[in-house]
Amino acid sequence: MLPSNIRFHSRYYAALLALLVLGACSGGGGGMDGTTNPTPTPQGQATVGVLLTDAPGTPFSEINATITGITLMGRGAPQTVFSGSNTIDLLKLDSSSDLFALSTTVAPGSFQKIRLTLSDLELVRRDAAGNVVERIHPHLPGNGKLDLNLQQSMAAAPGDTLLLELDFDMQKSIQIVGTGSGRVNFRPVIFVRLLQKSLNGRLARVAGVIGAIDATAQTFDLCDLVRNVPEMTTRSSSDDHMGDHCVEVALDAKTTVFGANGDALTFADLKQGDPATAIGRISKQDDAGDNDSDDQDENDGGMGGSDSNGDHDGGDLRLDAVVLEVGPPGSFARLKGTIKTAPDATTKRFDLGVDAGQGFAPDTLISTLVQDGTRIFGKDGTELAIDAIQVDRAARVDGVLQLSSTDPDTLKSSLIVVDTQAPNEETVVRGDVLTLDAATQSFTMTTATGDRCVHVADTTAIFLITISDSEFSSDRGTFADLVAGNHVDVFGSNNADGCVDAAVVIAEKTAT
Question: What is the DSSP letter of 198?
């Protein structure tokens, strides 16, 4: 994936150029030697991929999380999926799930928790001109070790391929106490999903270097995988950047391919060694090599590693591309903003008002061209027509920025993700549980403005949090786990009877 403005990281670019000179996919994964051989899982071990995504909606311009480890923990020895140091702007993960880590050397076992280790969290505020006006580093609970407990064990058998998605909800994770900038509390709210087949509609991004190409099957290996550059601000020298691995990318008749100048390419234009970002549907293939994307089993928070019949799913990762962006770092911008004009019926151009903090002057409008091959999606992964580009809707646009001294600057778009949902005024109430009624699955709670009643549905996400300087753990619970005296944060909507219909309840427990 490529930077969200015209700047790029020289260290990453140099590393990528070195890969092109070598002309070979590092490690034993194959792919650059002309054979079609996505990275095999070593015999007797399992493959685990971790994707990151985030819900939008915070008062900050950047939320930079420095991730130093992702570990699976269970009855046996901990299994490391990622170790290094990457700083990721979580706010740039609002329109897709981005492949962050991939390990093919996970020892089989049963896992009950994921430990996500952070060394720092930086909250950045910018003014309308994009200047930094404040940097906040809130205290990290648990010394930065965030234990996300699973509702049920996750089983990994030899040869299995498992996909985990960590969905950060930073709007609910960050609490500003007091007036003005106030004091900032960080209490992570992270949804953990085991994706046994594929992402549930949402687009995924995988970046790397093109390896073996199969013109007959219209597939290629994307090797020397790199964590997506627009979300990354630093990377340590100890980070292996997933360089030993390849993912199969498949194109179909609707897939569009764009070159570094923003113009359309064909499959025949692809060359081994070209850097590229594939955007589409990521999934596993079954043992017969079939794509499982039509047979989804999303398990939100509680994760099991086997099908309902007890058989384990195995196979390699595959991305069915909707858009392929080919070019070196800096070729494609990825800009977030608000649609200011509808597309012109003749020119297919619309004005995008660029959000602050992306390297543009305040109130910048960029003339954005919807090309014949531009794909348009909603944030849920639903493909849309051009009439979805409506005034005042938020959008994130991939494209090549074409600057001109005589004509308007143009963003030649390759992908447009439009937020089609109307803004939701979420009700937030905080206080302590007073009484609970199991028959109606409701409770009353204290708040700063008086007692409130709260209705809990079967679909309400309940997080049971244990938090201290030395410990942070998050369990997914049910209504039965709530007790009088719990301090709770409730997120939802007001209903006609004056109660709150809860979408999320966060109940704090005292560490022992």
Answer: B
pTM: 0.79
Q: So what's the architecture of 427-510 in CATH?
A: Beta Barrel (2.40)
Fold matches, 333-418 and 427-510: yes
The three-state secondary structure class of 47 is strand
Q: Which regions of 285-426 does DSSP assign to beta strands (E)? A: 298-300, 317-326, 333-339, 349-354, 365-378, 394-402, 410-418
Exposed/middle/buried for residue 387 (C-beta within 10 Å: 0-12, 13-18, 19+): exposed
Residues whose CB is less than 8 angstroms from the CB of residue 512 and which lie 6 or more positions away in sequence, other chains included:
none
Distance CA 63, CA 67 (A): 12
Kindly list the domain boundaries of the chain, sorted by start residue: 10-283+298-304+315-326, 333-418, 427-510
Q: Which residues contact 150 (CB under 8 A, 6 or more apart)?
A: 111, 112, 113, 114, 192, 301, 302, 303, 476
pLDDT along the chain (512 residues), means of 10: 33 34 35 46 79 80 93 92 90 86 90 95 86 91 92 85 89 73 81 72 88 96 68 43 75 97 97 95 65 41 31 61 92 94 97 88 92 95 96 96 84 96 83 96 94 96 90 92 94 92 89 50
CATH class (in words) of the domain with range 333-418: mainly beta
